[in-house]
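Is this the right way to post structure tokens for a design question? Let me know if I should format differently. Anyway, here goes:
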């Protein structure tokens, strides 16, 4: 397989599009590969396949980029990874969590994939519950309630620890600043988050001014309506990409989740929450998380079909959103629970070819069955 980059960095924004170094529009067709954000501190699957082979699989499926979540606890504690979790990567046995994370980044970029690290959660655990200690980028205001107390400055320094060693890798294209900020009971003022996002963006761009800064919406990344009155402004222009997450249960402040909406109701929410940024040529949007189960119920299909239709129409109109499917993983780290959203089998080789990959093909995924 070719290792030629699928994206030609450095990237910047032009109106509602991400463009490459030659000014050609780029659509990020991403896959989420989680695990480093969770309780075992390591991207999943390294006990089953060598990281290079997983990277080759991701590229063979047609994805051009990977969203790679980590936890702040990983950065702070940086434990040595259990050897059993690296059974297929014996050269990494004895390595710390950060070293394994960096090795995975290198494996992905060596086959031409772009990588976006994502600060997913403070504590190393499954995201995202109602724990206020993980609801935003800092939690020191909660005192002794949190097992790991994190100030805003701690969060910024953790980003510096993660990104500094990656500054020389051109296919690390940016940073997704924080997953699904939501505050207490789902509330979060956009202006509060925007201020923090600008601080983080400036610190990260001081390491490498070529990076994109991905800023998720509030209400678990579903709502970017606040950008109209309070956009993210950085000292280096044309570096901000906004990010939304859309799931079947999403739809903050509404009685009906997206699993039960008509298409017109769903599309109206998408337009109000984030797609207006594309329609008005304000900024690019990356739908950094969306996905559904391999054995869907009626509501799952309703949501999925509506989202695929909406994203496909945006592409047809020249306003294409970038996107990131959640996730490739076949199992969750805790209790080895089956991941119904996953795209591969337990061996990290066999692919679950079903309606979801067919939907992603409609969004431009150049899928080739292996």
């Amino acid at each position: 397989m070719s290792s030629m980059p699928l994206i030609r960095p450095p990237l910047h924004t032009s109106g509602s599009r991400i463009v490459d170094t030659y000014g050609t529009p780029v659509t990020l067709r991403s896959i989420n590969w989680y695990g480093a954000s969770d309780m075992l501190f390591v991207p999943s699957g390294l006990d089953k396949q060598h990281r290079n082979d997983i990277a080759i699989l991701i590229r063979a499926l047609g994805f051009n980029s990977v969203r790679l979540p980590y936890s702040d606890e990983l950065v702070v504690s940086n434990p040595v990874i259990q050897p059993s979790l690296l059974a297929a990567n014996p050269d990494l046995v004895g390595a710390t969590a950060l070293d394994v994370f960096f090795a995975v980044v290198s494996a992905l970029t060596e086959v031409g994939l772009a990588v976006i690290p994502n600060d997913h959660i403070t504590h190393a655990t499954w995201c995202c519950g109602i724990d206020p200690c993980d609801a935003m980028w800092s939690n020191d205001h909660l005192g002794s309630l949190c097992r790991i107390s994190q100030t805003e400055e701690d969060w910024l320094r953790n980003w510096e620890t993660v990104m500094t060693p990656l500054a020389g890798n051109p296919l690390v294209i940016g940073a997704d600043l924080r997953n699904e900020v939501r505050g207490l009971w789902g509330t979060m003022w956009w202006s509060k988050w925007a201020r923090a996002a600008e601080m983080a963006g400036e610190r990260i761009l001081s390491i490498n001014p070529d990076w994109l800064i991905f800023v998720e919406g509030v209400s678990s990344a579903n709502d970017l309506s606040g950008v109209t009155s309070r956009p993210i402004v950085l000292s280096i222009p044309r570096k901000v990409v906004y990010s939304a997450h859309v799931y079947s249960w999403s739809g903050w402040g509404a009685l009906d989740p997206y699993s039960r909406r008509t298409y017109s109701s769903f599309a109206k929410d998408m337009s109000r929450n984030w797609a207006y940024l594309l329609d008005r040529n304000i900024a690019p949007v990356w739908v950094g998380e969306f996905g559904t189960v391999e054995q869907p119920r009626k509501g799952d299909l309703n949501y999925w079909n509506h989202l695929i239709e909406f994203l496909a129409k945006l592409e047809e109109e020249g306003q294409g959103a970038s996107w990131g499917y959640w996730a490739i993983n076949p199992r969750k780290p805790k209790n080895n629970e089956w991941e119904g959203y996953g795209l591969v089998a337990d061996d990290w080789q066999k692919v679950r070819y079903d309606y979801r990959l067919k939907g992603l093909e409609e969004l431009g995924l150049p899928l080739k069955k292996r």
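Format looks fine. Someone answered above. Worth noting: The CA atoms of residues 13 and 67 lie 19 Å apart. The radius of gyration is 19 Å.
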